[in-house]
Amino acid sequence: MRRVRTAVAVGVVLLTATATVTAQETGQIEHSVNGHVLESEISTALMQAYGPIPSGDYWYDPMTGFWGVAGGPSIGRIMPGLELGGPLRADASGGGYGDLTGVFVNGREIHPEEYQYLVALFGQVLPGRYWLGPTMIGGIEGYPATFNLAATAASGAGGSGYNRSTLFGGLMSDGQCSGYLHPSGASVMTGNC
Predict the structure, then answer these.
(1) How confident is the model at residue 95 (pLDDT cuts 50, 70, 90)?
(2) What are the two backbone dihedrals, phi and then psi, of residue 43, each rounded to the nearest 5 degrees?
(3) Are 31 and 56 in contact (CB under 8 A)?
(4) What span, in angstroms and rounded, lies between the C-alpha atoms of 119 and 69?
(5) Which domain holds residue 6?
(6) Residue 152, pLDDT score
(7) For a tag site, which of 32, 49, 81, 153 has the least CB within 10 Å?
């Protein structure tokens, strides 16, 4: 029985190594979103819309359009409402059980970098569960809206908006208009632009 398990394990390792080499040789790019591998047609459509996207594991919040590398903070924003991968997981940014920040937005525990940004905007952020919509208006889960993230950023509470460069492009907002600028020149804007 032990030999059979060893043979199966070696076979799995060889198949995985072969698939990795084949993907590298053919230039095949693989994207995983919220724990599910995207079909190549969807990956191709995303790259046509937003430019090159390195192979990797990503998370995506369909309510806001924010996305990031699995285990990390948000690093971009695309169109909200896309059906990409599986459901957004609580641990998409590395925690998931209140062990990072204790602040959950649309079910995802936010990364410490995002938490620090919100503290800079609002002065303090209480642990809890919040919702945030595509217009950056949100509140406590199950209750009406109580804050406007974009307006707060633009009001001077945390500065006059933001402009953040990331590995995958730039993020910006002036409180009325928010956007993502891809290094290739492609952009996505939302709000009063």
Answers:
(1) confident
(2) -60, -45
(3) yes
(4) 22
(5) 2-191
(6) 85
(7) 81
